[in-house]
Design brief:
The protein is built from five helices and eleven strands. With 205 residues, it is an alpha+beta fold. The strands form three sheets. The chain has a seven-stranded mixed beta sheet with strand order 1-8-7-3-4-5-2.
Length: 205
C-alpha cells in the first residue's frame, strides 16, 4: 500500500483552515465575520455604562444585548426626529420578534426623564454625558443611527434615509432607505450595500 500524500493545494487548504480556526478561537465567530468583511470599529463602551446613563425600564448590557444593536441618537426637541417617529415605530415593530436586533435610543433632549419611552422602550437619558457618548460613536446630529455588533464593529452609520439631503433641504419623499436596507441585508446574512452616509439633522450640543 502506497504512502498517503497531500498535494500542494490540499496542504494550502489545510493551512488556511487552521489559520481560520485560530482566528475564530481568538476573536470569536462574530469577530471573525467582521474581520473578513473589513468593517470599522468604535472604541469599547465603558464597563460602567449603566452607572453613567439612566435607563428606566430595563438594565441594558451594551456589550452583549443582541447580535446587532441599532443605536439611535434622538431628541424630542428636534422636528426631524419627531417626523421620523412613525417610521421608527414601524421598524422596531417589524424587528421586535427577531432577537438578533435590539433598538436603543440615546436621548439628548431635556425632558427624557418625564417621557422616557417616546421613541423606544429602551432609551438612555444621555444628559451631561451626551457629548462623551456622541464622540465615542462619532455622532454629530439627531437623528443619527449606528448598527453595531457585540464586538463593537459598525455595520452601518449615518442617516435613516435621504429624505433630508442638507440642512433645511428636504425631498418630498425619500428615495434611498439606508437603514431599512441595511437591516434587511443583515437579517439575510449579507453585508449592507451602503455602510456609511452623512446624517443631516439637529446638531448635538
Amino acid at each position: 500500500m502506497g504512502k498517503f500524500q497531500l498535494t500542494r493545494m490540499q496542504w494550502l487548504n489545510l493551512s488556511l483552515l487552521l489559520i481560520l480556526i485560530v482566528i475564530t478561537c481568538i476573536s470569536g465567530y462574530r469577530g471573525l465575520i467582521s474581520w473578513l468583511l473589513n468593517v470599522k470599529d468604535i472604541p469599547d463602551l465603558p464597563k460602567d455604562a449603566a452607572s453613567i446613563h439612566r435607563l428606566h425600564n430595563a438594565a441594558l448590557d451594551l456589550e452583549r444585548p443582541a447580535m446587532f444593536n441599532v443605536v439611535f441618537f434622538l431628541s424630542k426637541d428636534c422636528p426631524m426626529c419627531n417626523n421620523y417617529k412613525p417610521l421608527l415605530d414601524s421598524l422596531r415593530a417589524e424587528y421586535a420578534k427577531d432577537s438578533r436586533f435590539l433598538f436603543v435610543g440615546f436621548r439628548t433632549d431635556a425632558d427624557t426623564a418625564a417621557d422616557s419611552s417616546y421613541f423606544f422602550p429602551l432609551e438612555y437619558s444621555a444628559g451631561k454625558d451626551v457629548r462623551y457618548i456622541a464622540e465615542m460613536y462619532g455622532a454629530t446630529v439627531t437623528p443619527e443611527v449606528f448598527i453595531v455588533d457585540s464586538s463593537n464593529h459598525v455595520w452601518y452609520s449615518g442617516a435613516i434615509d435621504n429624505w433630508s439631503f442638507d440642512t433645511g433641504k428636504k425631498r418630498q419623499f425619500a428615495t434611498e432607505h439606508y437603514l431599512k436596507d441595511a437591516l434587511k441585508a443583515l437579517r439575510n446574512g449579507q453585508k449592507p450595500t451602503v455602510a456609511e452616509t452623512k446624517a443631516v439633522g439637529c446638531f448635538i450640543e
